[in-house]
Design a protein that fits this description.
6 strands, six-stranded antiparallel sheet, alpha+beta, 55% helix, 24% strand
């Protein structure tokens, strides 16, 4: 039967047989190897992430302890006001900002909760003011930043323009915690 075929047809059959053999080899051996290699890579990534868990756990525990201290420890209104003043004034000193106003807090009682609102005004460059708001929102957890207003103020004496931020920070105190 093969003797009657021309060289062209024999080459086509040989090429077709080679392709079929290659597909058979891939499906029986190579595909399993590729699947096992991808599984191995995923498992190695999980092992790496598990190796980093103690560090991440300790960081999260420290963050949780700081948050619990702020919300469960000594949460008297005066201490929270002083702590916020210390954080803001230290940031202003380090980043050459001017703390313009830090009035007394506003207090509102709602059933079993006391809502304390702290307001302060800081003057300086926009990026540093934005970093201060980020610090209060994301890192210090001294309360919830409920508003940040960035007006441009004109000094009446010198007629210079300056950017200020007025920030409102609120925190809740359960009535049973306050004495």
């Amino acid at each position: 039967m093969l003797k009657n075929l021309t060289y062209r047809k024999k080459n086509r059959l040989l090429l077709l047989g080679g392709v079929l053999l290659l597909m058979l080899v891939y499906s029986m051996a190579i595909s399993k190897t590729v699947t096992l290699r991808s599984t191995c890579n995923k498992l190695e990534q999980r092992v790496d992430s598990v190796a980093q868990l103690p560090e991440e756990t300790s960081l999260m525990e420290e963050k949780l302890a700081r948050i619990e201290k702020n919300f469960q420890g000594d949460t008297s209104a005066v201490n929270m006001h002083e702590e916020l003043l210390g954080i803001v004034s230290a940031w202003c000193e380090r980043h050459k900002l001017v703390l313009r106003d830090f009035p007394e807090q506003f207090r509102y009682r709602n059933r079993e909760w006391d809502v304390h609102t702290h307001q302060f005004t800081v003057e300086g460059e926009f990026t540093e003011l934005l970093r201060l708001v980020h610090l209060l929102e994301q890192e210090e957890h001294t309360g919830k930043v409920v508003s940040a207003d960035y007006p441009i103020k004109r000094d009446p004496r010198t007629k210079n323009l300056s950017l200020v931020v007025t920030v409102y920070v609120q925190h809740l105190i359960k009535e049973s915690h306050e004495k």
